[in-house]
Design a protein that fits this description.
This protein is of the alpha+beta class and 372 residues long. It has one domain (10-371): Beta-lactamase (3-Layer(aba) Sandwich). The chain contains twelve helices and ten strands. The strands form three sheets. Strands 4-3-10-9-8-7 form a six-stranded antiparallel β-sheet. A two-stranded antiparallel ribbon has the order 1-2. Strands 5-6 form a two-stranded antiparallel ribbon. Helix 2 packs antiparallel against helix 12, helix 3 (108-121) packs across helix 7 (200-213) and helix 3 (108-121) crosses helix 8. The protein is globular.
């Protein structure tokens, strides 16, 4: 069975740099009763639906049951949007403000992907351009060429790091990449035989954005995405900035090191909904790059987490194709998903209470399924 997105709370994980491949898993369809105790799952028998321009609205009974504080999560925020519909609700120790900010973790990768595909559309480089040409000296000279397209689609062959950063250290992107390329660590295996999710791919892409444009990654996010779309709560915090401006989803526990273009951004549910809708409707990319967003590489077949050439996570829930991304930062886990052309969107953020990864994956799948 394909895995559902979940990353364990920070207190149960080793250093982030050694575990990035665990975030962003795929979605599968499960029933609420397979996740929650019978008392919580019981309301699903009375499913409540309406229609919005031919699309079902939220399964409010099932969604409410899944959001109640309990064995899976101590607090949950869900925003459902799309054609003619928007609703936000939060339970437990989370802000009830629909504009509450939170750290979006690896959802950041979708912003990085959009920037890179915009630069491809401008002719700055192609998906087949080796990153070694764009970032000379960053990767070991004896490595085989790794293309921009391979980084976007997690087919680069980059392996997990074997070196950890010191406690409290705020590394530069170059230092992060150096931990993946340390001679003591495993080199990429050629030929690459499978898609393998790896945050190092997106640190390299962030460096490509800066090298190509001559501007900081944070500035390019604002200039190319946040300001044009009116995303007033979306930005890249600077190194060492672990604050979340209010109103904010209430979190506890230590915020992990600066994750930059791989997973460091702050946003809120309305902004993520707007970004995802505009991305899927082709308002950020030229037609050729828009098509690339949805191309599934051959190496994604059979992979636990299936990512497109544009870095979108793809799967089906009850026969409906959904595209999106999950992310984790500190004690929370979040996600944004949408159906074709953003006709229905769901953004969630929650504080996991369970340390059982498989149950949490199923819980998140049921949560997204009820909202779609």
């Amino acid at each position: 069975m394909t895995k559902t997105p979940y990353a364990a709370p920070a207190t149960t994980r080793p250093a982030r740099w050694a575990t990035l491949a665990l975030t962003g898993a795929a979605l599968v369809s499960v029933t609420v009763g397979a996740v929650l105790p019978a008392s919580a799952a019981e309301p699903q028998r009375a499913r409540v639906h309406g229609t919005v321009r031919g699309h079902q609205t939220v399964d409010t009974v099932a969604l409410t049951a899944l959001m109640e504080p309990g064995p899976m999560a101590s607090g949950t925020m869900v925003r459902v949007g799309g054609t003619g519909h928007a609703r936000t609700r939060a339970t437990g120790p989370l802000s009830q403000d629909p504009a509450a900010n939170f750290r979006i973790g690896s959802i950041t990768k979708l912003f990085t992907s959009a920037l890179v595909l915009q630069l491809v559309g401008e002719g700055r480089f192609t998906l087949d351009t080796p990153v070694q040409e764009l970032l000379p000296g960053t990767l070991p000279a004896h490595w085989e060429p790794i293309t921009v397209g391979q980084l976007l689609s997690h087919t680069s062959g980059l392996q997990k790091p074997c070196v950890d950063f010191g406690q409290g250290e705020t590394p530069t992107p170059e230092q992060v990449v150096s931990h993946w390329t340390d001679p003591k660590c495993a080199a990429p295996q050629y030929p690459v035989l499978a898609q393998q999710y790896n945050g190092a791919n997106y640190f390299l892409l962030g460096m490509v954005v800066e090298k190509t444009t001559g501007r900081s990654y944070a500035d390019e996010v604002q200039r190319r995405i946040a300001r044009p779309l009116g995303l007033r709560h979306t930005y890249v915090p600077g190194p060492g900035d672990r604050t979340v401006p209010g109103p904010a989803l209430t979190e506890s526990g230590e915020i992990e090191p600066w994750a930059w273009a791989e997973g460091g951004m702050i946003s809120n549910a309305p902004d993520l909904e707007r970004f995802m809708t505009n991305l899927l409707r082709g308002r950020l990319l030229k037609p050729a790059q828009q098509r690339q967003l949805f191309v599934m590489p051959a190496l994604s077949v059979g992979a636990e987490d299936r990512f497109s050439m544009g870095g979108l996570l793809r799967n089906e829930i009850d026969g409906t194709v959904v595209w999106g991304k999950t992310g984790s930062m500190g004690p929370s886990t979040s996600g944004v998903f949408a159906t074709e052309a953003g006709r229905r969107t769901v953004v969630y953020s929650l504080l996991p209470a369970s340390r059982d990864r498989e149950l949490m994956r199923k819980h998140l799948t049921a949560l997204v399924g009820a909202a779609l």
